[in-house]
Each structure stands twice: as structure tokens, then as C-alpha cells.
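Two proteins follow. First one:
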Amino acid sequence: MQILTLKEGLETLQSFQTKETATAFSRLAELTLPTKKTEGYRYFDIDTLFSKKWQLYRAKKVEISVSDIVEIVDGIVVSAPKEVLVSYSTKRDIDTEHFDALYYLGHILSPEVIQLDCKSDAKIKIVHRFTQASVLLAYRLQIQTSPNISLHIAESFEGCDAKDTFVLYGYDLHVQRDARVEMIKDETLIEGSYTPIYSNFIELEAQSVANIFSFDFGNADGLQLLKAKLEENSTFNAKHLLYAQGNGKRGTISHIVHTQKNAKSFQMAKNILQDKAKGIFDALIKIEKEGGGTKAYQNSQAVLLNDGAYMVSKPQLEIYIDDVEASHGSSIGELDEEQLFYLRSRGIPLQEAKKILILAFANEIIDAIEEKEIQESVHISFENVYYGQSQLECMLSCHNCSDTIIGEQS
């Protein structure tokens, strides 16, 4: 396994430059690797990750077996349904204007991308499993739709054995004309396991729709970066639910770019922060000169459950034309005292009253998932974490891999 010292910069990456990654290498050189002074990473402590010497882990490809799910273990596909077309490819569609340097780093460190071709309506579950400790694990997924299809993809992540591993993953999703995609990410992180940074790109052709959900729970560090590029009459909806505890630093950094007329976007983030957790929502909506008739809305709401919790909320608009409807907003506060008083006046104990309000706050995002089976699965993920049951489930499935209780403190 090759040793990487990312703090030293591009010199350590020269051996990875190929014809297919030349564009990524050029863009990374322009942006430079992020530091604690880089906007977007200021509150994430990226220097700690980059100061380590990493062993770059690359698993060997195996024969893909048939199963009900797409299972990716340490960046390698091990199983997939018969009807899902999965392959590896050195060719890739790289966004040449992505704002995130680690988007390009992920491409550089991935000699091949996992190609997922979706030619008809489908419901796909992808399970990412990480098993290697103290390594840098980099891989990417490239998803291509056909026109006029409906696609539902649910991603989940497991990695209790991947202690102190840095996961650099992301997908490039191309939604063709008149196609409709719903993509859901569900991840619970436990302190001491892996640290993920996910950097994604979504391109929407004319009259296409993409609904993106992210559910980020737990008490460890993790960050997702997202860029969406909208063409004429396309629609992009992004909903994020964050519940962070302990000393975890979690959040979303996004750029939604309206490049042509009459596109619509709506972004909602709900953040629940406890203990000394830090939430991050740094989001930009950009409407270019050709984006007349755009409708764009963005909102972030955060509930702080105690004095030590902290929220960084930075919604932004960048508009180059007058013929648009656009708004953004942010609110940070505590649970409503009047609502708590009402519930307690009905004989409900204080802690139970708080849980009722928190569940109601979170359910607005969860209940927006179209697929009921996935919706129920996310409900279980959130309630397990919130009620403090995740340690038991991890012990049953991951062989006593963690001693951390990440439920609500009494």
C-alpha cells in the first residue's frame, strides 16, 4: 500500500496522474488542497486528517455475485442484482467547475470508477461496508440514467471495524431528460470508527427531477459536499437531517447552480445538536445570467439541546439576473418553551416532552421520502440513535466494536 502525506500537497500525488485524471489534477492544482483556512472546511478540522501519513488501500476486484442489493466492500463491488448493470471504467465525466478540491482528489486516487447504468425504472439499495483500519480509502461511483425513467437509490454505510480510517467517496449522477431520481443517504457514525468526506456532483438535464436526502446521525466527524447543476425546466430538491452528539462535527456544504431558464430548487436543512457537537450548513444558490424564470428557496433550522452545542449556518444567494424568485433563511434556537409547557401540563414528563418535539421536528424531513420502506428504515435509524439504542445494535452486528453510547444523556 502506498504511503500518502497529503499535507505536503500535489508533489505526493504526481504518480497518480493519468490521461483520464488530467482534468482533475489540473483543477486540484488551481484550487489547492484545503486547510483550516479554506472556506467550507474552517469548522471541520481538516488539518488533522491531512497531517497524518496515510496508507492508500486498494482492494482487489472480485467476481460479482448475485444478491438483492449492491454491496460495496472497501470500494469494490462484491454483489449486485441481476438487473443492475455494474462495471468498472477508467473513463469518467468529471465536472470541470466543481468548488471542492477533494472532489478532484477522489477522482485522482481512484484509478477506476464504479459505473452504474440505469436503463429502466428501478429501486436499488447500495450498502457500503468498510473493514480496514487506519487507511485512506478512496473510490467513486458514476451513475448514468436513461431518459424518462424513475430511479430510487438508497445508500447506507457500515464501518465499525474501520477504526481511524479516512473514507474519501463520492458519486457523479447524470440525470437525463425527463428522468426522475430519488437518492437517499442514511449514515450513523460512531466515535473512533471511520471519518468520511463525501463529495458529489449531480447534473440535471432539461425537465429532469432529482430529490436528494441525507440523514447524518452520531457522535463522530463527517462531512458531505454537494454540487448540483440545473438545466432548463429541471427541478432539484435537497433535504438534510442532522443529529450530532458528543464532540462530533457534521454537516453539508453545497452549491446549487441554475445555468438555464425556468429551473426550480428547494433546499431544507434541519439540525439537532447535543453535547458539544458542531453542525455545519454552508450552502450557496447561484443563478447565472441565462437562468431567467428561476425559482430557488433555501432554509436552515437548528435546535440546540444544551449550551455546549454549536451551529454554523451560512445560506447564500448569488444572482446575476432580475427575473427570478429566490429566498434564503436561517434560524437557530432551543425547543419551544410554550410547547414544552403544554405537553407537561398534560402529564408528560419533561424528557419525554422534549423527545416528542424533537421527533416531530425530524419527521418533517423523513416523511418526505417517497419510498415507504426506506422511510420506515430511516425512522428506525433516527429513533435508535436518539433513544440510545445504537450501541446495542452495533454490538450485535459488529462484534462489540464500540464502547461509545451515543444516545441522549439522562
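Second one, unrelated to the first:
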Amino acid sequence: MVNRAFVVSGLVQGVFFRDSTRKEAYKLGLKGSAVNLPDGTVKVCLRGEDKQIDIIKDWLSIGPEFANVESVIEVDIDQQLELNGFKVG
């Protein structure tokens, strides 16, 4: 199990991005969170197998129907962080 995090920019707030991310993560057996940041981006933290995280990373670059994703940037995350369930904040 590994932890990875991404910051997604574009039209990603107010378009059900966080809840859609939660649903995709659940399908892939991933734990984590999706949180709106003050600058209009969404930070997604994930815990799971590399292969499943790579799959959702590809999904993040598209997002749900009304999103317009401009970029997905991987950011550092504490590998000791314990992520349980999936939190939308």
C-alpha cells in the first residue's frame, strides 16, 4: 500500500468533482480524501495499490461530466499517513 496525492486544477469546484472522485475511489478499493482548496483547486489524497492509483489518476485528468480539468499535479504526501474510508471535505 502506498499514499499518493494530487492537486487538480481547472473547473473542479461546484461540479461534483469531490463526490465523483469518492465514487471512483470506492470502485477501485482506494481510501483517502478529496478537499476543495481556497485557490479553486481540489486536493485528492489516496491510499492503495499503485495500479489502482494510476487508474484514478487518469480519471482525475478528465473528472465528472461538468468538470474542465486543466492539470493534475502529483504532490508529496506523508507515507505514514493513515487514510481510512474516503472523506469529502
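SUMMARY FIELD: The first strand starts at residue 2 and ends at 11. Residues 48 and 87 are 15 Å apart (CA to CA).
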